[in-house]
Specification:
This protein is α+β, with helices and mostly antiparallel strands. It is 27% helix and 27% strand. The chain has helices spanning 14-24, 43-56, 107-121, 136-144, and strands at 5-7, 67-73, 76-88, 92-98, 126-132, 148-149, 153-154, 160-167. The chain has a four-stranded antiparallel beta sheet, sandwiched between helices. The structure holds coenzyme A (COA).
Length: 179
Amino acid sequence: MINLEFRRPAPTDRAAFEDWIADWHEDAYDAYRWIFARAWTDFDWYVATCERMRTDGCPPELTVPLDVQWAFEQQTLVGELYLFYEPLAGDNHIGYKVRPSHRRKGIATALLLHGLDRLREYGIAIARLTCRDTNLASAAVIERAGGTRLDDKRGAEGHRTRRFTIPTDRDSVSPPLVV
Ligand SMILES: CC(C)(COP(=O)(O)OP(=O)(O)OC[C@H]1O[C@@H](n2cnc3c(N)ncnc32)[C@H](O)[C@@H]1OP(=O)(O)O)[C@@H](O)C(=O)NCCC(=O)NCCS
């Protein structure tokens, strides 16, 4: 049974974030790119940016507010959850990543379920999610959490994107999920 503690990034998490970053250097997935690229080297900027994006949004690159939450297993930062209460580009309410050394333990599934709970509390009945067509791991996580696939979309960079909907009320997902 996974026991995760969720909280927003805080200045006191510097050591945990440095440890998390070190885990990502050899991974194929580029954990921080686009407007987040500075997170690789600037913890203070990233924490401040997360707070600003939650309260203001970040035009023009990000037109909707972003709520970043971190998941800790004891003192270790194991997962990062991005919550968009208005779907990014109309298609994505939730993003997640799990540190490479802690995969295949159900952490992404726990992040996604936590995100669905937050959206439900916010009054959103159906969450929208996307992943690259090549990201079979993420697609599996979404489908196992009750995701229904919609038609694919061609992304701005030319890649194919899978799109899904998931009810945020877990009781409506059959069979019920237990994490
Ligand atoms: C995708 C990712 C979030 C999965 O995290 P995770 O914690 O390992 O996922 P879970 O343990 O919850 O996996 C749940 C199920 O999804 C499927 N799955 C997960 N990773 C998989 C993989 N690499 N290959 C095939 N299936 C996979 C399995 O069915 C798995 O259940 P099982 O372990 O009992 O077989 C993680 O690999 C990651 O952070 N990748 C880089 C970031 C990323 O791609 N984020 C998503 C962007 S859309």
